[in-house]
């Protein structure tokens, strides 16, 4: 569903897709916050939200998606700190971690606020 000129918010009904493994919504014109119903997508391994107009804080429940291995939120209007629930992920300088997740947060500074946590990435 990438690059389709979608506008508006992600429908809360997406949360009914509990067996959804990969959601690519990058390069659209989606806006607003992320619906809390997405936390029901417990099989989600890849969540790509890049290049949209999402705003607000990144919700802490993203860190509880136990199967999530790739999260991209770059080029949006998210603000504030990366939630501590995501801080268990691997710091790119930490060679001892066994985490398999990759977080790509900012490719260009479109968010506001202060980034209190290092960018986390493990490829």
TrEMBL record:
Superkingdom of origin: Eukaryota
Keywords: Leucine-rich repeat, Repeat
Stretches assigned to coiled coil: none
SUPFAM superfamilies reported for this sequence: L domain-like
InterPro entries for this protein: Leu-rich_rpt, LRR_dom_sf
UniProt entry tagged with the keyword Transferase: no
Keyword Repeat: yes
Protein name stated in the entry: Leucine-rich repeat
Organism lineage: Eukaryota, Viridiplantae, Streptophyta, Embryophyta, Tracheophyta
């Amino acid at each position: 569903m990438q690059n389709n000129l979608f506008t508006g918010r992600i429908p809360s009904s997406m949360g009914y897709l509990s067996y959804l493994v990969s959601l690519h919504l990058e390069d659209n014109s989606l806006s607003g916050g992320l619906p809390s119903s997405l936390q029901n997508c417990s099989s989600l391994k890849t969540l790509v939200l890049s290049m949209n107009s999402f705003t607000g804080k990144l919700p802490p429940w993203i860190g509880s998606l136990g199967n999530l291995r790739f999260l991209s939120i770059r080029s949006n209007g998210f603000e504030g700190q990366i939630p501590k629930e995501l801080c268990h992920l691997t710091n790119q300088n930490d060679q001892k971690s066994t985490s398999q997740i990759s977080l790509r947060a900012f490719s260009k500074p479109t968010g506001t606020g202060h980034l209190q946590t290092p960018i986390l990435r493990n490829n």
